[in-house]
Amino acid sequence: MTSYKKLDIVYVVPSRYDDDGYVQRWVWGVVPSNSLAVLKSLTQSMADRKSFPEHNVTIESYDDNIQKIPFEKILRRHRNPDTKVVVGIVGVQSNQFPRASDIAMRFRELGIDVMIGGFHVTGVLALFDELTPELQMLVDNGVTLVAGEAETTDAFEAIFADALNDNLQSIYRLPKAPDITDAPLPQADPRYIDHFGARWATIDSSRGCPFGCTFCTVINIQGRKMRCRSAEAVLETVKQNCEKGVPNFFFTDDNFARSAHWESIFDGLKILRDNGTLVNFMMQIDTQSSKIPNFVDKAVAAGCRMVFIGMESVNPENIAGAGKTQNKVEQYQSMVQTWQKVGVLVHVGYIIGFPNDTVESVRRDVLFLRDHVGVDVASFFMLTPLPGSVDHLEMVKRGAEIDPDLNKYDSFHETFVHQSMKPGDWKAATKIAYSEFYTKEHCTNILKRLSKDHYWLMFWNLIWFRYSGVFSGTHPMMTGFFRRKDRLDRRPGMLRESVFKFALRRIKDFVLDSGSYIKLFFEFQEIWFLTRRRAIACETVTDKLIASPETNIDNSIDNNIGDNTVIKRLTIPRRIARLRHWAPLAQLKACWNSLQQKVAEYNWKGQYDKAVQELRDQLTATAYKLRSMASLISFDKHKVRALEAIAGEIDNCIIEIDTEPANSTTLYKVQQFIRDKLLARYEEMSCSCVRLRRCANHLHNSTIDNLKKGRLFSSGIWLVKRSWVVPIDACLSIRFFFAVFRQEL
User: Fold this and answer.
1) 386 or 563, which is more confident?
2) Paired sense of beta strands 200-203 and 248-251, if any
3) Euclidean distance between CA atoms 330 and 368, whole angstroms
4) Are 330 and 368 in contact (CB under 8 A)?
5) In 10 A of CB 563, how many CB atoms?
6) Are the CB atoms for 629 and 639 separated by under 8 Å?
7) How many whole angstroms separate alpha carbon 531 and alpha carbon 522?
8) Are the beta carbons of 87 and 112 closer than 8 angstroms?
9) Which residues does 673 contact at the CB level (< 8 Å), separation at least 6?
10) Closest Cα to residue 514, out of 378, 700, 720?
11) CA-CA distance, 570 to 583, in Å (whole number)?
């Protein structure tokens, strides 16, 4: 070997570029890199074994998503003749490859050896005999490609031995599917995890997947045979991380349920919890895992709080075309309910862009997913032919037109011409999916059914997914909190902006982001007021008594609220007296969720006439009941006029139903009318905080609209006339702020 005394290994996780060419970097990230944690553990194990006894091995790492890479600092160490610096760019996915390539070229310009590995490199080399142009370019510039997993000790150490001899090869193909039984596990670095919104550590207890989905790269990179770490090693790692103050884990196994050691791991986690270690985790599983004997019960006992399930589609033709034969749409609802009944949240992955998808079918299918299947969280991905997947290989073979810019392969861009959607429609359909799933009403319904233990976890999840998917147009799993931008760190080939122009861009970003954060703050105030435990208990009893006057009031109160005397003897009687004449709307509200579920099923099956008839019958009955109620309180002219006015609005809606064709558009309009005109009105009458919050929100929106139109004088007059809202707005906001701070329900 050469005369180096120190081997300095620098690992870098690359980010990607946004559509304006700036590196996507955040103050806090969302999900820490498991690849980085794995490689650091493997390298530390190599150093601990003294594999290179004559060399002092040091390891440092940088995550480009949350940290700026210190090129100059690394260069200074490289200039030390006693130090060999090797940079490894790790876990590189296809959408990160352009950024990873630019980082590699920057280091090569500085004369530093660079290796690059991850899913893109491994996937391409697994399915293609020749290097693709982007890989060939790196090889031509002296960058080393590393394909495969690094758990084969001899092969892993041989790479660094070559580096110390200044003899790195162009390509290293590590042994396929290495044994990981006793391989070092990823260790949580608290300093690194502090850069993320939640303190979650990642662990891959197994690799591979037995299924054959055509869009997936895992089966061609990690194989279809499951390989597992020992349960004892996994449990010891969990225990060590808990001792570091990191008790929350994400098992990144592509399919934890198919690991041979799932039961031993669950049993061990239960013992840890029984001994006072409050371990919590989420895991990725398949749709059939709930049928495995004892799997669900043991997962709950072990501390499972959320499962991520690759549902992918509710269209059977899409599922069959993707080779996802294990997914059965008719079983989705019962599968989801199985997990929810034991208090586990269900997060599904859903792909948009299969051949049978259209803009209208996406909206219909998402409503079915939301209202009939009933999942808690959904991540929507645009179908992307990822290098390493069968889909990509077949498209290349038949010469299909696919986007050459790998930066767009983030499952949030159109990367090929869709057969049923025009350019732009596919992206719009994905935005519709997020907007329809994460409505305020659905967020409210989700939180209402959760226990106190899960409430705040889901509360923040819903805020994040609504912000990312609806407001910012970024994928929730590939973004972060509070964007950073560096004027000098722009994608090569794109014009570097002047200081003034860049400042204007950042001001615009700040205004738009601030507006989104403020709007979310007010929206989720309203949602909190509707979903706090006292409000739900009080609402449940009141609505029941209003809808069914014959019900015994004392029994209903005792069964639902317990010993809260204030609510029993003061709040509920007052609510009943105020709302009794709105019984028809209370009855509509009571049956709304089940009605939506039935309508979503009819809509999904294309039985629009049945769905429209269901809604029409319900509206007709509600209008009749409102008029009947008006006749009973004819002495109160004000209330009679209000009831008659709402009944008139319902009549107009029914006339529209009768004059328009029965289709998904008509269904959507009618459901929106019921939500916005009937149920929202009842919520405002039944909860004064919600009414005041919405009144204040209306003031905010009207003021913003006037300012956008340049009506400064009108905005001032509007604010003066409604200045009474400002102190109420402030009080509600302060109340909500303290509730969040104390996690109060």
Assistant:
1) 386
2) parallel
3) 12
4) no
5) 7
6) no
7) 14
8) yes
9) 653
10) 700
11) 20
